[in-house]
Design brief:
Blueprint lengths: L25 H19 L16 H9 L10 H16 L15 H18 L3 H15 L14 H18 L10 H14 L4 H9 L2
Helix pairs in contact: 1-3, 3-4, 4-5, 5-6, 7-8
Keywords: TPR repeat
InterPro entries: TPR-like_helical_dom_sf, TPR_rpt
Length: about 220
């Protein structure tokens, strides 16, 4: 079976490693993907993950690959481990992208769950870096992966609550960090109420009138 040749990989840090997706067999792909996944998990679980200002053995995914090729892979000591985790999960998503496979290829039933896990963990890594915008995007992708298609469930279910709860919780936190609640493009009722209070205080007692006209007209 021949597989399509892909384009180069760009890491989150902006490094373009110019590596092509040119695996000859699924076994070769599995070996590579499992190797990257193990390294991502090791860095992800490292005790000092949150200390983002410390030294790290790998400055980029390219450095990791070089060390990996020579059998010199070691755990980074601190926060750059999180950046490496981001690069590694992005590479994993690139490796298993169905765009690289023949059009008639059918992924296993566990493929969707793998995408769920990768996007979720990538979102967590982005949050640890304070990159809440990308975290929101990854959590949204995670929700899309495990959402039941319209009319797909006889009971009328729209989502799998067991899988959705942690995603929605983390995405809500990321939205809060981004300050979207105060965005002019997404004003909710609670924010409008607080805004009316603030405007009323600034205008010297016009709070009751502003609230009444806004919500009880």
């Amino acid at each position: 079976m021949k597989y399509k040749t892909g384009s180069s990989v760009c890491t989150d840090s902006g490094n373009d490693n110019r590596r092509e997706w040119n695996f000859a067999t699924l076994h070769d792909l599995h070996v590579r993907a499992n190797s990257v996944l193990r390294q991502a998990m090791l860095n992800e679980r490292y005790k000092r993950w949150r200390k983002l200002d410390s030294w790290c053995g790998f400055r980029s995914l390219a450095d990791f690959r070089t060390a990996q090729d020579f059998g010199q892979v070691s755990l980074p000591a601190a926060g750059n481990a999180v950046r490496l985790v981001v690069d590694l999960y992005n590479e994993l998503l690139w490796l298993i992208d169905l765009a690289h496979f023949p059009e008639d290829y059918e992924p296993p039933s566990s493929y969707s769950m793998l995408l769920y896990e990768l996007h979720y963990h990538l979102g967590v890594a982005y949050q640890h870096l304070g990159n809440h915008g990308n975290a929101v995007k990854e959590y949204s992708k995670t929700i899309e992966v495990v959402s039941i298609s319209k009319n797909g469930c006889l009971a009328g279910c729209l989502t799998n609550s067991c899988l959705m709860t942690p995603i929605y919780t983390r995405r809500a936190f990321a939205h809060a960090k981004l300050g979207l609640a105060t965005s002019e493009t997404s004003l909710d009722v609670y924010y409008r109420f607080l805004q009316a209070i603030s405007e009323g205080r600034r205008e010297g007692g016009g709070f009751r009138q502003s609230v009444t006209s806004e919500y009880f007209a």
